[in-house]
Design brief:
The complex is a heterodimer of chains A (455) and B (317). Chain A is of the alpha/beta class and 455 residues long. Chain A is built from 17 helices and 13 strands. Chain A folds into two domains: 202 residues, 3-Layer(aba) Sandwich (D-Maltodextrin-Binding Protein, domain 2), CATH 3.40.190.10; 203 residues, D-Maltodextrin-Binding Protein, domain 2 (3-Layer(aba) Sandwich), CATH 3.40.190. Chain A has a four-stranded mixed sheet with strand order 6-9-5-10. In chain A, helix 9 packs across helix 16. The radius of gyration of chain A is 25 Å and the shape is globular. Classes of the chains: A alpha/beta (455), B mainly alpha (317). Chain A: Keywords: Signal.
């Protein structure tokens, strides 16, 4: 009897252990389904906490599948998360079509973590209408293409029109030079009540990111090609001018607040609370300020990058799982073009947004600034004006100014270079006696070490 | 009354069994042992599978990764010591170790002494002992990220709690996290506050085991409070203090949450720790090879302390 019980227990325990093992080693089974139908997993599905965006996405999936009965879309929530990307790829859980920020493709291409889609692009309409600077981000030195851009938000100066008015500044004439920014910041700070004139990030590589935007705005660069490799290009007069201007604004003008080591959410919180005059941001920050930080569209204006020389390109796009089959890549390209790069759907799509009172009129999704001058761009601009739900005039100077600015991409190994440049930002913003030359020398050493690893 | 049989009483040594018989016996004994412990082996196998899958395999894989370059698409490339060379060439590598040792040193001075002092005071209390124990332990129950965010407000150089208090008593405000001089100290204070509850309870338990007669004898000899502490309390709790110190070194060498949430390693890399740099390599730069190389170095370093810890505990037991 006891032997029977023992054997029974053993069988149970082993079965449980085996079950666990099998579960742990379970493989994904999202390959092509029956009947020649291609099944692809795609991410970019908005979370349930954004019901409108989620509904639009799910409706689009259903409509696409109806138009393309041979393709089955398996949507997944989430966007690009560098923390989980490699684990998902290693575990076979990475989507066939995955979202990326424009900061990601260079490294993913270098590490061969995205599929080459060049040979499948001939059949994709309107790709030739995309801005070449954006397409370049997804292209390697040999001209091979690894993804498509779907949105672009170049950086500009986001300012609080209400505070401008209260400070005696004209909100329709935003600053166009850094000297004008300094003067405006002084007047806004003078309003008192913890109002900060201008804020800047300096932590988690975001300081380096914005230091890069400052450099571009003054005609400088962060890295340059030297022979077969790369070297830093910021330890020069332009670099010193950027650092010195920031240091003067922080300590001489005292217009940047006492609290430093800020990141984007800190600054957005200040802006949403009406305690900040200006910061550098892309247009997509405006809906975030309204939706997440209780801001009001009427309060915000966008101006081109002060300095007038150049601006840092940002944005998003989609790339393809390096293990995806050609059929999946072709199906994925059809989805990307149909959903994100489709002038034929523009009218109906914007009407849906307008009917629900969603923001239309910003140079951001659903009317991203991705098209070259021509028929498609004109069509989008006229529809944007037709369905506008936000004060378009508040962003017009940004849109007009963008054509004059050189649009530049991030340096290679951007995150490591930004980590080095974070220190320059932190130094000038936290230390009254910071030695700008020493900070730039240190950052140069570290950035060169990072750039030497560019493969 | 029992009878002693001649066989029982035989002074002759037992006859050696032939080898074949002995092997059979051993096999039989083994079979019986296996049969008797079948259920136990069953339970053990489940645990072994789980450990193998989720602990040992990742550890072995981590060691291998330290010598490989991986992109998780193509086969890993064996690169020998290249990842370590890259690490040694990183100017932040030494900074991270220096900062981590500074954190550990400060945590020993502050985070080690304070819980012991608090335990001694709590042990002396005659009233509300339970209440104060709970108060000291409460921060342990807060999630670490919540603690970090709370203290970020305390440290705010403008309207933050500490500077408001400093200004209130006529002292100049401090930059706290915003200065390279005070950033690491600020992080140690947070970590100490958040974790001292557990250490205090362990010290309290150790203090409770000291026989009261020792204090009585010391008092009869005319020992004052400091002398009683020095000659009775500390020697009697020496072993616990030593073990706690080693455990604290192992824990503080792996500090991550506070610098990650509160400073991001700044200002000017003054709070970049070994684990924060490791995290950057793995999850920001996606360079798992170099990150694994760094974790191997930390493993070797902490292994030394762990060996010392084990030796001490074995000697004691």
């Amino acid at each position: 009897m006891s032997t029977t019980i023992q054997r029974g227990s053993l069988a149970l325990v082993l079965a449980a252990g085996l079950g666990l093992t099998v579960t742990a080693c379970g493989s994904d089974s999202d390959d092509a389904g029956a009947g020649g139908k291609v099944t692809i997993t795609v991410n970019g599905q908005p979370p349930k906490t954004q019901p409108f965006d989620r509904k639009i996405f799910d409706e689009d999936v259903a409509a696409f599948e109806e138009e393309h009965p041979d393709i089955d879309i398996q949507p997944r929530e989430g966007f690009m998360d560098p923390k989980t990307f490699s684990s998902k790829l290693a575990g076979g859980q990475l989507e066939d079509v995955f979202y990326v920020y424009l900061t990601d493709p260079a490294n993913l291409i270098a590490r061969r973590q995205a599929a080459d889609i060049t040979d499948h692009l001939d059949d994709v309409p309107y790709v030739d209408q995309l801005q070449p600077e954006l397409k370049d981000i997804f292209t390697d030195d040999d001209g091979r293409v690894y993804g498509l851009p779907t949105a672009n938000y170049s950086m500009g100066l986001l300012y609080n029109r209400t505070l401008f008015t209260e400070a005696g500044l004209d909100p329709d004439q935003p600053p166009t030079t850094w000297d004008e920014v300094r003067e405006a910041a002084k007047k806004i700070t003078a309003l008192g009540d913890n109002t900060v004139g201008f804020a800047e990030y300096s932590k988690n590589h975001q300081g380096g990111w914005h230091y890069t935007a400052w450099m571009y705005s003054m005609g400088g660069d962060i890295a340059e090609k030297q022979g077969a490799g790369w070297a830093s290009a910021f330890n020069n007069d332009t670099g010193r001018e950027v650092a010195q201007t920031l240091k003067d604004m922080r300590w001489e003008d005292d217009t940047m607040g006492q609290k430093q080591l800020l990141v984007i959410e800190d600054v957005q919180r200040m802006m949403g609370a009406g305690q900040l005059g200006m910061y550098l941001a892309a247009p997509d920050n405006v809906p975030t300020l309204v939706n997440q930080f209780n801001g009001d569209y009427a309060d915000y204006g966008l101006a081109p990058m002060p300095g007038g020389q150049g601006t840092l390109l940002g944005g998003e796009g989609y790339m393809f799982n390096p293990k995806a089959s050609p059929e999946k890549i072709r199906a994925g390209l059809q989805w990307i073009q149909w959903k994100y790069l489709n002038p034929d759907r523009m009218d109906a799509n914007l009407k849906r947004y307008a009917d629900q009172g969603q923001p239309i009129g910003l140079p951001a999704s659903p009317t991203p600034d991705i098209w070259v001058d021509g028929e498609v761009r004109d069509k989008q601009e006229s529809l944007k004006a037709k369905y506008a739900t936000v004060p378009v005039a508040n962003y017009q100077s940004f849109v007009d100014g963008l054509t004059e600015l050189e649009k530049k991409i991030e340096p290679p190994n951007a995150q490591q270079v930004y980590a080095a440049l974070d220190n320059v930002m932190q130094g000038v913003l936290t230390d009254r006696d910071a030695d700008v030359n020493r900070l730039l020398d240190d950052a140069e050493t570290k950035a060169n070490q990072a750039l030497a690893q560019v493969r | 009354m029992s009878t002693i049989t001649s066989r029982d009483a035989s002074p002759v040594a037992p006859r050696r069994s032939p080898p074949a018989r002995s092997a059979q016996d051993r096999a039989g004994r083994l079979r019986r042992t296996v049969a008797d412990n079948l259920t136990a082996y069953g339970f053990l196998s489940a645990a072994l599978v789980v450990f193998a899958l989720f602990s040992w395999y990742p550890i072995v894989r981590g060691v291998l990764l330290g010598f490989q370059q991986v992109n998780f698409v193509t086969d890993p490339v064996w690169v020998g010591w290249e990842n370590f060379e890259r690490l040694f060439a990183d100017p932040l590598f030494l900074t991270a170790w220096r900062n981590t040792l500074l954190f550990t040193g400060l945590a020993l001075v502050i985070g080690f002494a304070i819980p012991f002092a608090v335990a001694v005071v709590l042990n002396e209390l005659r009233h509300a002992k339970g209440y104060f124990r709970m108060v000291v332990y409460l921060p342990v129950m807060l999630p670490p990220v919540v603690v970090a965010i709370l203290w970020k407000w305390f440290y705010d150089p403008g309207p933050g709690l500490f500077n408001t208090l400093l200004r209130g008593v006529g002292l100049p405000p401090l930059a706290w996290l915003n200065s390279t001089d005070t950033s690491m100290l600020s992080l140690v204070l947070v970590a100490t506050w958040a974790s001292m509850g557990s250490a205090t309870l362990i010290y309290l338990a150790a203090l409770a085991t000291i026989p009261g007669e020792l204090y009585e004898a010391a008092e009869l000899d005319g020992a004052n409070l400091w002398q009683r502490l020095r000659h009775v309390t500390i020697p009697q709790t020496r072993f616990v203090l030593l073990v706690m110190m080693l455990m604290q070194i192992i824990a503080t060498m792996q500090v991550f949450t506070e610098p990650y949430v509160m400073t991001g390693g700044g200002p000017e890399d003054s709070t970049v720790t070994v684990l924060l740099l490791l995290y950057r390599y793995a999850f920001t730069y996606n360079d798992f090879g170099t990150a694994s190389a760094m974790s191997l170095l930390l493993f070797v370093f902490l292994g030394g302390f762990s060996a010392l810890y084990l030796r001490l505990t074995r000697t004691r037991s």
